[in-house]
Design brief:
This is PAS domain-containing protein. By secondary structure, the chain is of the alpha+beta class. Helix content is about 30%, strand content about 30%.
C-alpha cells in the first residue's frame, strides 16, 4: 500500500521515509494497526528481503505465531502484542522460524501513530538494533513555548497539585471552563477513564519510565465523551515537575466516521417481518434473513453470536446457501467481534478484508469459512451486550458505511426475533 494514501499520511510518511533511509537494505516491513477495526495493513517504505509471508503473518494470526515463534520467546512476544493493542509504545526481539524452516532474529517495535488517534505504526525487521528508529524520545526543552503549535489538545500538569498549569487552544476548546476554578479538571480525573491500565500502573510507568501511552475517554465541557490516544511524559521545566499530556481525539481522524450509524431508509417488507416472526429457531431466523435481505447486496452468509462476557465465551451459529457454517460453536470472548464492540462503544463494525485482521476470531472462524468481509451489529439487553448479528460476504470490500444502511429496516425485527426465541427456549 502507498503510504501517502493513508490517513495521517504526512507525519506517517515522513516517519517511514526516514526509517527506510536509515535501514537501507535491512529486511524490514512497516505496518499500521487500526485498533477500532482490529485491522493491520502492511505499508511501503521498507525492503522485505528475507521476511517472507510466513514471518510477517505472526502479527495477524495468533495460532501461526504460537507455531512460528520459538517457545522460549513466546511470552515476550505476546506481551509485546498486548501492549501494542493497548496503544502503548512497545518493542521486543524474538526468534522466528520462517517458511524455509530457518530461525531468524526478528525485532518488533511500535508506537502510537503520530497523526491519527487509536492507530499504531511499527516495523518488523530482521535486526536487533532498529528499535530506537521507531520508538524514540523527543526533546523536552521549551515544550510549553511550543504548545500553541499543536492542533490537538496538549496540557502541562503540575505533579504537585495534579492540576493543569498550561493548556493550548485545542485543549481549551475541548475542556472549556473545566480547566479553571477550584473544581478544575485534575489529572486523576483523566486516569479514571484509562483503557490501558489502572491509575496506579500509569503513575508507576511515569515514575520508573518517565512516560505512558494508552487510550483515554475524556469528557468535554458539555459532558460529551471523546475517545483519545493519550501520551503522558514527565519533565522538569523552570524548576517545576510537570507532566506533558498530549491527547489525540478519535474524531480528528476524519476517515469513515461521517457515515457511522445505520438509520433506516425504508420500512421492512411485510414478508420479511412475517418470516422473522414465524421462525422457530435461530437457524430458521437466519435463513429467513438471507431470503429477505436487500436485493442490491445479497450477502452470502449471516451469523448470530450469543455473548457471555462473564464466562469469556461467545456461541456462534450461521447459515449460508453454499458455505459450511458453525452450529452453536463456542469461541473465546477475548479476541471476538463482541470484545471490539464493547471496548470502543461501537454501534456497528465493518471489516473490509478479513486477511488484514488481527482478531483471533477472524482467523479461526471467518477466514477458514471463506468469509472475506462482513459487518456486525450489536444488540443489548439492560446495557449488557447480548447478541451480535453478522452479515458476511465472500468478496473483499462488499460492505461500506453507505450501503449497509439498506439493512437498517430489518434489524429491529431481527432483534425482536432473537429475544422471542430466547424467551421461548427458557420457558
Amino acid at each position: 500500500m502507498d503510504i501517502g494514501s493513508l490517513s495521517g499520511a504526512p507525519a506517517l510518511s515522513a516517519l517511514l521515509t526516514m526509517s527506510a533511509t536509515a535501514l537501507g537494505g535491512v529486511p524490514a516491513v512497516f505496518w499500521q494497526l487500526d485498533l477500532r477495526k482490529n485491522e493491520l495493513t502492511f505499508l511501503g517504505g521498507g525492503s522485505r528481503g528475507a521476511l517472507d509471508e510466513q514471518t510477517t503473518l505472526i502479527l495477524k494470526n495468533p495460532a501461526h505465531a504460537r507455531a512460528a515463534v520459538l517457545a522460549e520467546d513466546q511470552n515476550r512476544f505476546f506481551e509485546c502484542l498486548d501492549r501494542i493493542r493497548g496503544v502503548h509504545p512497545a518493542a521486543t526481539i524474538v526468534r522466528v522460524r520462517d517458511g524455509d524452516g530457518l530461525v531468524r532474529w526478528i525485532a518488533l517495535a511500535a508506537m502510537p501513530d503520530p497523526g491519527t488517534a487509536m492507530r499504531c505504526v511499527g516495523l518488523l525487521a530482521e535486526c536487533s538494533g532498529l528499535v530506537d528508529l521507531v520508538v524514540g524520545a523527543t526533546a523536552d526543552a521549551d515544550l510549553d513555548d511550543k504548545i500553541a503549535l499543536f492542533d490537538n489538545p496538549v496540557l502541562l500538569v503540575s505533579v504537585k497539585t495534579r492540576h493543569t498549569v498550561l493548556a493550548n487552544p485545542a485543549a481549551r476548546a475541548l475542556f472549556g471552563e473545566r480547566l479553571d476554578g477550584p473544581a478544575a479538571l485534575a489529572f486523576d480525573d483523566l486516569l479514571l477513564s484509562s483503557a490501558g491500565g489502572t491509575a496506579a500502573e500509569i503513575v508507576e510507568a511515569l515514575v520508573f519510565h518517565g512516560q505512558w501511552s494508552g487510550a483515554l475517554t475524556v469528557h468535554d465541557d458539555r459532558g460529551a465523551p471523546h475517545l483519545c490516544a493519550a501520551r503522558v511524559r514527565a519533565l522538569s521545566h523552570r524548576g517545576q515537575n510537570l507532566l506533558w499530556v498530549c491527547l489525540m481525539p478519535e474524531a480528528a481522524r476524519g476517515d469513515d466516521r461521517s457515515g457511522e450509524g445505520m438509520p433506516p431508509e425504508d420500512e421492512a417488507s411485510p414478508g420479511a417481518i412475517e418470516a422473522f416472526a414465524a421462525a422457530d429457531s435461530i437457524p430458521a431466523l437466519l435463513r429467513a434473513f438471507v431470503e429477505h435481505q436487500p436485493a442490491a447486496l445479497q450477502a452470502e452468509a449471516v451469523m448470530r453470536s450469543r455473548i457471555f462476557i462473564a464466562e469469556n465465551r461467545v456461541v456462534v451459529t450461521g447459515v449460508a446457501p453454499s458455505l459450511v457454517m458453525p452450529a452453536a460453536e463456542t469461541f473465546p470472548y477475548e479476541g471476538s467481534i463482541a470484545e471490539n464492540i464493547v471496548r470502543f462503544g461501537l454501534d456497528h463494525l465493518i471489516v473490509e478484508d478479513t486477511s488484514r485482521s488481527i482478531k483471533p476470531i477472524d482467523w479461526v472462524l471467518f477466514i477458514p469459512k471463506g468469509i472475506r468481509s462482513y459487518f456486525a451489529v450489536p444488540f443489548f439487553d439492560g446495557g449488557m451486550l447480548k447478541n451480535v448479528f453478522i452479515v458476511c460476504s465472500t468478496e473483499v470490500g462488499r460492505f461500506t458505511e453507505r450501503n449497509v444502511r439498506a439493512y437498517g429496516p430489518l434489524l429491529p425485527a431481527v432483534e425482536a426475533a432473537f429475544n422471542r426465541l430466547e424467551e421461548t427456549r427458557a420457558t
